[in-house]
Structures are given as C-alpha cells and as structure tokens.
Amino acid sequence: MPDTPPIIQVRDLRKVYQSGDVPVEALRGVSLDVRRGEFLAVVGPSGSGKSTLFHVLSGLTPATAGSVTIDGIGIAQLDEAGRTALRKDKVGIVFQKYNLLPTLTAEENIAIARHISGKDIAWGPAFQEVLKALGIENRLHHKPRAMSGGEQQRVAIARAIVNNPAILLADEPTGNLDTQNSEIVLSLLRELNQKTGQTILMITHNPEAAAYANRTIRMRDGLIAG
Amino acid sequence: MLNQLVFENLKHRPLRTLLSAAAIAIEVAMILTLVGLSDGTLDESKRMRRGIGADIVVRPGSTSVMSFSGVTLPEKLVEYFQQQPDVEIATGSAAHGIPGGLMESASGVDLAKFSTMSDGLRFLSGGPFQAPKDIIVDERYARTKQLGVGSTLKLWDKNWNVCGVVEPGKLSRVFLPLPVVQELASAPGKLSQIYIKLKDPSRTDAVVKALKDNPQLGSYQVLSIDELASLFSIDGFPALRQFISVVIGLGVVVGFLVVLLSMYTAVLERTREIGILKSLGASPAYIMGILMRETLILSITGAVAGIVLSLVTQWTMNTFGGSALVQKMVPHWWPYTTLLAIAGALLGTLYPAMKAVRHDALEALSYD
Fold first, then answer.
1. Which of A36, B45, B215, B262 is least surrounded, with the fewest CB atoms within 10 Å of its CB?
2. Distance between A220 CA and the closest CA of chain B, angstroms
3. For residue B109, what are the domain limits?
4. Based on the domain organization, do B294 and B359 belong to the same domain?
5. Touching check for A159 and chain B: CB below 8 Å?
6. In this predicted model, what pLDDT tens digit does every residue of A7-19 receive, in sequence order?
7. Are residues B176 and B266 in the same domain?
8. Do B139 and B167 touch, CB atoms closer than 8 A?
9. Is residue B315 part of a domain?
C-alpha cells in the first residue's frame, strides 16, 4: 500500500527532558512512518528513547520539536486537552503494568473506556467475539486482583481496542508476564492485527517479542538505528 | 458507569468513607440540635406564658423575659388592677431560681386565683397544696427528676412533699404557695409578675395603652400576652442568633476540613488510578466529576445520618436533659443544613480535585 498515507508519520521528532537542572535529550530527531494495518515493533536497549517515543505518540507527553501526525492529526503542537482527546479517540494504550482500575471488574474496566469516549457502554456482538478470542469472556465479572497477570493484560488489550482506535500502542506488554502468558498475549496481538487490520506499535526490549511483529525498527541513543 | 466507579471507590476504603460521613453527620446534628434546642426552649417558654390565660402581663422594668428573678413588684398592685373596670381577674406570681437548674425557677402562686385565670392546673395525679411544704410539679419535671405524688424533692436545702403532678404548659414547671416563695426570696409582699385577664380580650391593646400612660406605673413593663410571646423568638435574643451563626459556621468549617483531608488523601492514594483515567482520555471535568460525586454521596449520606442523629439527641435531651431545655424537631432546617453540609464538603473537595486534575499523566502512572 505504498500510495496510502502512513497512519503514523514522525518527522525529526525531538524530546528534551529536564532532569534536575540538566537537560536530557531523549529523542534526537526521529523520523518514522507506520502504515495502516502494520504491526511494528520498536526495539532497543534501556535509554534508547523507545519509551519516550511511546509517550509522545500516545500523547502522554508533548514533543519538544518536530512533527507527529496520527491518522491525519498533527499532535506535536497539541495542548493537554488536545492530547487528552487524542487518547480518547485515536489511540489505545497497553502498558507493561496493565493499569486496570482495581475497584472495577474486568467488564467495567473495559466499559469505562467507552464511557470516557462518550459511547454507549454496551458493546456489540463483534466485540464480544474479540473478548472470546482474548479468552476473557468468562472472566469479565472478576476484579483485577482475582485475575492472573496474563488475564489482566488481555483485559487491558480489550480496553485499549474497545473504541476502535486508529492505532494500538503497547509498551512492553509482556514485560511482567511469564513465557507462556507472553506467548499468549503476543499471539493475540498478532491475531488482532491480522484479522482486524488493527495498526499496532509495540515497544519492547525483547527480540523474541519483536519477532511477532511484521516489521521491526531499532532505536539507539534517541535515534532510529535501523 | 461513573456512579459505579464512585460507589466502588467509596466501598474500597470503608473506614475513610465512614469517618467522612460521620464528620458531616456530626456537623449536621450539631446544627440541628442547637437550633432545635433554642427553638424548642423558646417555644416552650412561649407556650407556658400563653398557658397562664392572661391578656396582659406587668413586669418590673429592665428585666429579661427569660428571667423571673427580681421579686420587686408590690403585691398591692394586684388589688389596684383588680379594681380597674376592664379587669376580670388579676393575680401575681413570685419566682425563685432553682439552684443547679438551667434557667429554672419555682413559681409561687395564689393557686385559687391562678386556677381561675388559667382554667386550672390539670392534675395528672395528686391535687392542690394541703400544707406549706407541699409542692406541685409538671409532668416533664416529674419525669426528669423521677418524682411522683408523695415523693420528696429537695430544693434550697429543704425537703418538699410532691402533692400533685400537673400537665405542663402553664407558667412554670414547679409551683409553690405564693407566701412560701416570697419568704424564700426574702421579699414578703412582693411579686415577680402580675397577670391580668380582661372581661373583653378585644380591649387588650386599649387597656395596655391606658396602663402604659398611667404615670403611677411608669417604671413597669406592661405587655400584652402577644407582645410577651413575641419576645420568645430568636429575634428577641440577638446574642443567641449570633451564637447559633457561629456554631453553624464552625460546623461547616469542620465538615470542610474533614472532607478536604479525606479527599486529599484519596487523591494521593489514587494518583495512579487518576493517571489511568487520563491515559484513557478522561478530561479534567470527568475526573473532577468523579471526586465531586463521591463528595456529594458522602455529604448527603452524612446529612441524612446527621438528621437521624439529631432525633437521637432530641430524645436524649428530652429524656435526660433536665426540664428547662426542650429540643424540638426542626424539619424546616433539614434542607438548609443538608445544603450547608454539601456546600462545605464540595468546597473541601475543590483543592484535592484541582490537584488531581493537574497531575501529570505520566508521573501519575509511575506512582506506586
């Protein structure tokens, strides 16, 4: 699909953090295109800037310079409210630590994402099939503390895609899981990408996890290294 | 959905929820108890004055309506009033403060004349004075002091024989023969108040005016019973109104501080959860809405509990609290106190809510 515009377009992205009085340049001019329907893995060692890239793409932190376009929206210059709206409408996020609300059941954790986006909290049969594919349709009435790490991460994935986001961003989604659960989660992400065409950008330091993606880029010292 | 999250949050920390609601309940109960006490006590005093059956009251000048002290009116005035053409009957009472009683006094009356004027004391048990050491008490006084006919009541280091228990609502809770109280007050031939019943009550204002215009009565207060009753209202006691306002203010401040502290710790504790909501795209208004709803539920629950608590204090006061203070139910204050509690609590949530809204999403997500 070379003639369709990339769903994520990053140009000369720079991000400088202030660590005390010392400025730290985490991204030093990253340029990147992600095609619609692509499953991209971003790998690199600690401090390479991959998590910072994740935070900027998800709108959790603003860029210092450069341009970022997600599904046609330039986000680099968005204010806090704009970036909040981006997370609500365009981006689904999966974290390493699952980040489920502990007081709500799995079903409510998924439903609240729909409520925040202003949608009817009841989902349709298509999403019910997704829940079945994720293997959590019988765990929906459980609270996170009663679920395994793998189950929690699958609920987090369901929550991230319940609003049909343009992109799914996953930050070390298997970082807290054992091998068996890691394989289940990664297979589910690949299946999701293949069956629904969901664009996925996954940050990982693990080459085995990256192998589930259909493209891998490497980061080093705040730059794309290949 | 939001309500579900709010209820789950409240259930998640039951002790904090309970303490916050309890603080608001105490705030509401404190206000309702104070207002109920002042209204109840004033209303009871008003009812007692009206129960005398007089149309006009003559009092010594410069004495408070809440006070019967000052046995200074010459008894011969009763005779003077009795001779006036409009007057059907005139009688007087002498009051003597009861030691240890809060605003309580015993009234010395000419029982025969007082009974004629007031349609008679209604005896629930026993009967009129038979001996100088006889004392009559009303039902409330008897209940709070656990007295009955034949009981001995010790007052002013003397033992009195309870000869009758009467229905409350007429002048006083404790009655003695007039000469006995005059002797106790070391004021023979003197009275605290004189009551006048007119042949034609519609002439009350005219007679009051005539008595006020009489230079011989210049140093006395002459009041119609309606005027006297009107003084037994909160408007008649500016200091009491100020006191109530101060207590209400303190109550609201306490509620405000407790909720502020509670919600502040809640926000701190839920920093990560707030970060999660932000990562899902929750707007500042959404997050603030969650905290405000929590506060609303806390304050409404607290207010309802406070109203119930005020009924408990009412029962306690009216059962064990002595006979002088009467607490009545003040349902017209329920909405005010509920709104005050809600307003104070919402105000207390404002700062923690602003703090939550301003949390950086990334920092919040990394909070453990």
1. B215
2. 22
3. 62-218
4. yes
5. yes
6. 999 999 999 988 8
7. no
8. yes
9. yes
Which of A103, A111, A117 shows the shortest C-beta gap to B9? A103
> Do B102 and B75 belong to one domain?
yes
Task: Tell whether B295 and B160 lie within a shared domain.
Answer: no
Cβ-Cβ pairs closer than 8 A, A with B, add up to 68
Name the residue with tokens 């343009």: A166
One-letter-per-residue 3-state SS of B39-97: HHHHHHHHHHHHCCCCCEEEEECCCCCCCCCCCCEECHHHHHHHCCCCEEEEEEEEEEE
- The answer to whether residues A101 and B280 touch, using CB atoms and an 8 Å cutoff, is no
Residue B169: enclosing H or E segment and its boundaries?
A: none
Judgement on whether residues B212 and B71 belong to the same structural domain of the protein: yes
A50 in contact with chain B, both atoms CB, cutoff 8 A: no
Give B4's contacts in chain A (Cβ within 8 Å): 104, 108
Per-residue pLDDT of chain B (368 residues; tens, 9 = 90+): 778 888 888 888 889 899 989 989 998 998 998 888 888 877 877 777 777 777 888 888 766 655 555 777 788 887 887 777 887 788 888 888 877 666 677 888 887 777 877 777 788 888 888 888 888 888 888 887 788 788 888 888 888 888 888 888 777 788 888 888 888 878 788 888 888 888 788 888 877 777 777 777 777 878 888 777 777 766 667 777 788 888 888 888 888 888 888 888 888 888 889 999 999 999 999 999 999 999 999 999 999 999 999 999 988 887 776 666 778 888 999 999 999 889 988 988 888 888 888 888 888 888 77
Is residue B249 domain-shared with residue B360, that is, in the same domain?
yes
Distance from CA of B347 to the nearest CA of A (A): 25
What tokens appear for B98 in the block? 């009861």
> What is the Cα–Cα distance from A72 to A167, expressed in whole angstroms?
12
Residue B319 lies in a domain: yes
Q: How far is A38 from chain B (nearest CA, A)?
A: 22
Does a structural domain hold residue B224? no
Q: Which residue's structure tokens are 């006036």?
A: B84
Q: Is residue B365 within 8 Å of B276, Cβ to Cβ?
A: yes
Q: Are residues B185 and B324 in the same domain?
A: no
Looking at the structure of chain B, the number of domains it has is: 2
pLDDT in tens, B93-122: 888 887 766 667 788 888 777 787 777 778
Based on the fold, state whether residues B68 and B210 are members of the same structural domain. Answer: yes
Q: Is B134 part of any domain?
A: yes
Domain end: B162, B187, B218, which one?
B218
b/e map of B168-179 (b: 16 or more CB within 10 Å)? bbbbbbbbbbbe
| Closest by Cβ to A116, choosing from B9, B11, B281 | B281
The token pair at A186 is: 């990664």
Residues 263-322 of B with CB under 8 A from A: 272-273, 275-283, 286
pLDDT for the residue B322: 65
